[in-house]
Amino acid sequence: MMDRRLIENFDWSVIWTMMAILCIGLLSIYSAVYPQIQARPTNNLFVKQIIWLVVGFAVMCGSLFINYQRLRALSPWLYGIIVFLLAAVLLVGKEVNGSKRWLEIAGFQFQPSEFVKVIIIIWLSGYFSSQEVSNFPNFRKLILPVGMVILPVLLVLAEPDLGSAIALAATAGSMILFVGVRWRYLAILILTIIPLLLPVWQRVLKPYQKQRVLILLSPDRDPLGAGYHIRQSKIAIGSGMLWGKGFLNGTQNKLRFLPEKQTDFIFSVWAEEWGFVGCAALILLFGLLIFLILRIAARSRDRFGSLIVVGVGGLIMWQALINIGMVLGLLPVVGITLPFVSYGGSSIIALCLAVGLAENVSMRRYVFQTH
Amino acid sequence: MFQEMKTKGRKLDGPKLINLESAESLSFKKQYIVFFAIMLLMMMVYLARLWYLQAICGQYYRYQSENNRIRVEDIEAPRGIIFDRNGVPIVENRPAYDLMLVREDVGDLDGTIKELARLCECDPADLFSIVEANKGSPRFIPIKLLSDMDRDCLARVEADLIRLPGVEIVIAPKREYNWDGTAAHLIGYLSQITEKEIKSGKYSGYYPGEDIGKIGVECAFEKYLHGVRGHRQVEVDAVGRRVRLLQEQPPVAGHDLWLTIDMDVQRTAESALAGKAGAIVAVDPDDGEVLAFASSPTFNQEKFIKGLSESDWTEMAKDPGHPLLNRVSGAAYPPGSTYKPLVALGALQCGAITPTTTFQCPGYLSFAGRQYHCWRKGGHGTISVERALMQSCDVFFYHTGLKMGVDRLAQYVKMFGLGAKTGIGLPGENPGLIPTSGWKKRATGVPWQMGETISISIGQGYDLVTPLQMAVAYGAIANGGKLWTPYVVNRVEGMAPGEVAGAGPRLKREIPIERSWFELVQKGLTEVVGEPGGTAHSLYDAAYPIAGKTGTAQVVGLGRGGHKAGENDKDDAWFVGYAPASDPKICVAAIVEHGGHGGSAAGPLVKQVIMAYLKGKHQSAKR
């Protein structure tokens, strides 16, 4: 199974780029939880993140042994399992800060909403690469994939986890657009969604989520209340100036002004201590990573594999764009992690799996199988 | 864009292509370009935004980050409310406004303080001295300049707050006395904790500037009343204004206290004492519950809230009436003739006298070449113990005392709790003094003189007792020999009975004196009021049968300074009694300093208190 060609076609550049971003993430987490590290050198979020990374790499390496082509047949089952888990979160999930996002199984907590993104990518790739679905599919052929995406999006939204729901919808949406959507359908979609926005705004969004959108539209609305996160994040980033304050010298970070600093606002921690230079490097690394992933997709001769890799690239890109846009004060504050940088076990493992999928496709780009 | 792709896509769908998969994959080429172009565009936007924040506005944000601060503010917990036995609130809490200054945020300290002094119409020197006194504390810690500002001052400062960086007004709960000065010695007052008290370790977790109870139950039950302070984490801006509440841990209010005193009885006792120096204390003889605790003159607890000024303090300290002195349990007086029933009980028990023993009273007793007078110049003739109590014959008790001897006398009298703290649990209790020959030798180096035994047998000489001790001792006479520890707190809200030390009834001892001797003495005490020849017959009222004993104690040579000339030589007037005589429900001790004769100066006060209590009891029973 593991023949020489598989190893030859392994794309090391993706792994190196990812490792570079992971190092930035570790440095940032180290700084963000520094007081905790001093208090408990062996049991802190930094150490935990390293453990998650080890687990993530192990899972990634393990996944490489399974030919991705098999996932086509497995994807409906995976989809069923993850929808079941998402429903279970709503029923028996662990509530933290007013939202239920975690499932506890055998002492381990994990967020199904991180894994559903990968599974949706696989399922959509399988669907759009099947014999009967071509590029620019007709309306009937779009009903099933859209419905299959909307169900988990609604389940994630109900947790509520607006950030994950948006990332999921954006990834799936870009995959559908990638396959091609006729202009007519897009026009109809926009015309039907706009009247739907009002009830969503009134019923579905929580007051704090509405507040965040409103504050984005006019930041002066409440600079002291809900605009606080954006303001503090901007102060942290801006105060980094060109060269940053230096590792472990971030005052915003130290004084605990930054909320959720080791997860959603990790970019601010990095920006404060490493300045514009560090931020530009991080953004360029993300650009490089996505470019390299798209290169894998383009090189693949298999429509299913290409679409999977495009989905993986889209997932990483959207999460990074939304997260950085949020901490830069360009987008509303929604809870979403910065891929490979933020702290979080489920997020890291899901992303390792996603990169593993891309490598899987890269390794097997010359291995043709009939299905 | 999509239109183009569409046409191309359709072309590719054509059947001409052999390797369908490969061709379709190639067909994504345009999509890759669009995907990558979108990403590059977003990267540009983000880099531009970063450049704007970090390069263009960097200086501004750097400044902001250096002036960002989190402060932790305390939220004072409201103290427990103090109720009387019937649930009447005696001491409650009200919001008060304190003027605080955070020096770190003040631009011009001098100007700010002068402006505050002008707005509050106070002396800038006072404010400066407060700032000076806090020189050692960190500059970001607020200093309290004024506590409990009045409304005019508050309004003026509030209006100008925007111009006064570093000045803030905080709301803190303050004590509100529904009857200012009532039961002040029992309840106590609040005052700022001193450095010594903080260092003593008794008040762990207290901060400088915090109020603590200084005397009375406010002090004794401090740990229950105090509550647990809360905290508030706030973000402040560069001038110290609160920007955002980050976290709040609300305070926990102190436990409420239910006292044993009856507000009606208490107020009756206080009005009876009005204008006099003295004390009235009433206890329930059945369990030691304190029903009234009045010490006169009293003081205004309200005064302590704003912080006592220097002049207020000296005035209070120099007041010849010593308003802060707790005359109920903190001051000891010679008991005078109120001592006699205790002597009689001891003498009967030890066999020095019998109910039929008589002595001859010619108006004096000659002993060792000296004449010891009876209060009645003509004498009482041949007299037994029962009538000696009724008429308060001194000579009878001179003989009795001499027969017992000082040490045996002390032994019995101490059984009634005299000469030792009662254990009421209030700070500053005076144990009084019951002399023994050994004590005198130790204290003065001079052996006991027989003549001194004569003085102490009628409650003079070295004998010193507190009114509270007398009330408790007479309670034991009234109930036939049970000595209770007096207590002032019925219960502490939220605590199980028995969990709180010093609350609830506790029997101290069963006095080992025969029941029949108690009955005999009770008879004598009943006759004091009930029989026409009794020393307090003027108190007789068939509806309120009182049993008791008058006392008129000489105070010459006691050195109690500060009295007006001419009043100095007037005797202290005592009356201790209980009622109803046959079924005692209340036992009252009263002393009026320099009041003169006990039967006329102290007796009527006791009667008023007894009437107030029994009337109230009667009414509540009817209800």
Could you characterize the architecture of this molecule?
The complex is a heterodimer of chains A (371) and B (623). Chain A has one domain. Helices cover 69% and strands 4% of the residues of chain A. Chain A contains 15 helices and three strands. The two termini of chain A are 17 Å apart. About 1% of the residues of chain A have low confidence. By secondary structure, chain B is α+β, with helices and mostly antiparallel strands. Chain B folds into three domains: 61 residues, no CATH class; 185 residues, Penicillin-binding protein 2a (Domain 2) (Alpha-Beta Complex); 326 residues, Beta-lactamase (3-Layer(aba) Sandwich), CATH 3.40.710.10. Chain B contains 24 helices and 22 strands. In chain B, the strands form seven sheets. In chain B, strands 2, 3, 4, 5, 10 and 18 form a six-stranded mixed β-sheet that branches. Chain B has a five-stranded antiparallel β-sheet with strand order 12-11-22-21-20. A three-stranded antiparallel β-sheet of chain B has the order 1-8-9, with no helix packed on it. In chain B, helix 15 packs across helix 17, helix 15 crosses helix 18 and helix 15 packs antiparallel against helix 22.
Provide the fold topology.
The complex is a heterodimer of chains A (371) and B (623).
Chain A: H1 4-8, H2 12-32, H3 34-39, H4 45-64, H5 69-92, E1 94-96, E2 99-105, E3 108-110, H6 112-128, H7 139-157, H8 162-179, H9 183-204, H10 207-217, H11 228-239, H12 251-254, H13 266-299, H14 303-327, H15 345-363
Antiparallel strand pairs in A: 1-2, 2-3
Chain B: H1 2-12, H2 20-26, H3 29-56, H4 58-66, E1 69-75, E2 82-83, E3 89-101, H5 109-120, H6 124-133, E4 143-146, H7 151-160, E5 167-177, H8 184-187, E6 190-192, H9 195-199, E7 211-213, H10 216-220, H11 222-225, E8 230-236, E9 242-249, E10 257-259, H12 263-273, E11 278-283, E12 290-296, H13 302-305, H14 310-318, H15 340-350, E13 358-361, E14 364-367, E15 370-373, E16 381-384, H16 385-391, H17 394-404, H18 406-415, H19 437-444, H20 450-457, H21 467-478, E17 482-485, E18 489-492, E19 506-510, H22 515-530, E20 547-553, E21 572-579, E22 586-592, H23 598-601, H24 603-622
Parallel strand pairs in B: 2-10
Antiparallel strand pairs in B: 1-8, 2-3, 3-4, 3-5, 6-7, 8-9, 10-18, 11-12, 11-22, 13-16, 14-15, 17-19, 20-21, 21-22
Helix pairs in contact in B: 12-24, 15-17, 15-18, 15-22, 16-22, 17-20
